[in-house]
Amino acid sequence: MPKGKIIKALSGFYYCLDGERTIQCRGRGVFRKNKVTPLVGDEVIYDYENEREGTIQEVLDRKNELVRPPIANVDQAILVFSAVEPDFSTVLLDRFLVLIESNEIEPIICISKTDLIEDEKQKNEIFAYADDYRRMGYEVRLTSTLEADGIAELLPLLNDRISVFAGQSGVGKSSLLNVLRPELALKTSDISAHLGRGKHTTRHVELIPVGSGLVADTPGFSSLEFMNIEVEDLSYCFPEMREKSDQCKFRACTHVSEPKCAVKTAVENGEIPKYRYDHYLSFIEEIKDRKPRY
Ligand code: GDP
Ligand code: ZN
């Protein structure tokens, strides 16, 4: 039986992308058999009724499942942080990175609005941060939708996977989506000059093909609380610490007050930026303060 990927769910229909074709499917069989509600992003096995219509028979196992937007099998998050307006904040960036990594989603850092950088000093600061995060192992791209800068460097990263945009409001997520996929802008331009909060009222999310990849048309990660992360797991969400932790004296080292800690040594000799470690410590405190949930 043919296999497809749900790219849109609307009014009881699931639109399954199978190669070049989109098949409009009903989900009857699945509700009966798997007792699962299909999600956008799901890989499914379906049955043809005719050229353009079918029935979903089975939802294949999910790799992960986001709540907002509701999408399954998200591979990566494009984490958009503006260089200015709002100002670049490493503590907020690190918070997003932890949340994304803890969902086993690969983050890509996109520093947006580079055209608004005012002087050399500001530019050097932003570039230094970009270098820091690259050294930690992250992909970093700098973009300006206003000057169409950096878009060509971002595009190839979207191929062959499901991506979702994330980041604070006002950083330029919608603007980037519009540049990557002009049809989307056309579709929404009759509602408003540009996509933004409120207008694109999202009862449903849609995956839009960009290159050979799929991108969610609705940005995600609204909750920024560390609800499902434990103290001992936190350092696994910091790739530069993850890499060092097997050199710590203690196997379960949390890199706080243990002796012979490779992470602390790396912070002391500048291999790991001090601000990253400080954020790590403050996140640890935050997780410890969390009331136990029964
Ligand atoms: P979102 O809330 O993250 O989706 O942000 P928007 O895409 O709605 O953008 C917020 C504001 O920033 C809008 O006024 C955009 O025109 C502006 N903006 C977005 N990208 C850029 C950029 O690259 N350069 C400049 N100067 N402004 C931008
Ligand atoms: Zn350690």
From TrEMBL:
<keyword id="KW-0862">Zinc</keyword>
<comment type="function">
    <text>One of several proteins that assist in the late maturation steps of the functional core of the 30S ribosomal subunit. Helps release RbfA from mature subunits. May play a role in the assembly of ribosomal proteins into the subunit. Circularly permuted GTPase that catalyzes slow GTP hydrolysis, GTPase activity is stimulated by the 30S ribosomal subunit.</text>
</comment>
<dbReference type="InterPro" id="IPR010914">
    <property type="entry name" value="RsgA_GTPase_dom"/>
</dbReference>
<keyword id="KW-0963">Cytoplasm</keyword>
<dbReference type="GO" id="GO:0019843">
    <property type="term" value="F:rRNA binding"/>
</dbReference>
<keyword id="KW-0479">Metal-binding</keyword>
<dbReference type="GO" id="GO:0005737">
    <property type="term" value="C:cytoplasm"/>
</dbReference>
<feature type="binding site">
    <location>
        <position position="248"/>
    </location>
    <ligand>
        <name>Zn(2+)</name>
    </ligand>
</feature>
<dbReference type="GO" id="GO:0046872">
    <property type="term" value="F:metal ion binding"/>
</dbReference>
<dbReference type="GO" id="GO:0042274">
    <property type="term" value="P:ribosomal small subunit biogenesis"/>
</dbReference>
<dbReference type="InterPro" id="IPR031944">
    <property type="entry name" value="RsgA_N"/>
</dbReference>
<comment type="similarity">
    <text>Belongs to the TRAFAC class YlqF/YawG GTPase family. RsgA subfamily.</text>
</comment>
<keyword id="KW-0690">Ribosome biogenesis</keyword>
<dbReference type="InterPro" id="IPR027417">
    <property type="entry name" value="P-loop_NTPase"/>
</dbReference>
<feature type="binding site">
    <location>
        <position position="253"/>
    </location>
    <ligand>
        <name>Zn(2+)</name>
    </ligand>
</feature>
<dbReference type="Pfam" id="PF03193">
    <property type="entry name" value="RsgA_GTPase"/>
</dbReference>
<dbReference type="GO" id="GO:0005525">
    <property type="term" value="F:GTP binding"/>
</dbReference>
<protein>
    <recommendedName>
        <fullName>Small ribosomal subunit biogenesis GTPase RsgA</fullName>
        <ecNumber>3.6.1.-</ecNumber>
    </recommendedName>
</protein>
<feature type="binding site">
    <location>
        <begin position="167"/>
        <end position="175"/>
    </location>
    <ligand>
        <name>GTP</name>
    </ligand>
</feature>
<dbReference type="InterPro" id="IPR012340">
    <property type="entry name" value="NA-bd_OB-fold"/>
</dbReference>
<dbReference type="GO" id="GO:0003924">
    <property type="term" value="F:GTPase activity"/>
</dbReference>
<keyword id="KW-0342">GTP-binding</keyword>
<keyword id="KW-0378">Hydrolase</keyword>
<comment type="subunit">
    <text>Monomer. Associates with 30S ribosomal subunit, binds 16S rRNA.</text>
</comment>
<dbReference type="InterPro" id="IPR004881">
    <property type="entry name" value="Ribosome_biogen_GTPase_RsgA"/>
</dbReference>
<keyword id="KW-0694">RNA-binding</keyword>
<dbReference type="Pfam" id="PF16745">
    <property type="entry name" value="RsgA_N"/>
</dbReference>
<keyword id="KW-0547">Nucleotide-binding</keyword>
<feature type="binding site">
    <location>
        <position position="255"/>
    </location>
    <ligand>
        <name>Zn(2+)</name>
    </ligand>
</feature>
<dbReference type="InterPro" id="IPR030378">
    <property type="entry name" value="G_CP_dom"/>
</dbReference>
<feature type="domain" description="EngC GTPase">
    <location>
        <begin position="72"/>
        <end position="222"/>
    </location>
</feature>
<feature type="domain" description="CP-type G">
    <location>
        <begin position="63"/>
        <end position="224"/>
    </location>
</feature>
<keyword id="KW-0699">rRNA-binding</keyword>
<feature type="binding site">
    <location>
        <begin position="112"/>
        <end position="115"/>
    </location>
    <ligand>
        <name>GTP</name>
    </ligand>
</feature>
<feature type="binding site">
    <location>
        <position position="261"/>
    </location>
    <ligand>
        <name>Zn(2+)</name>
    </ligand>
</feature>
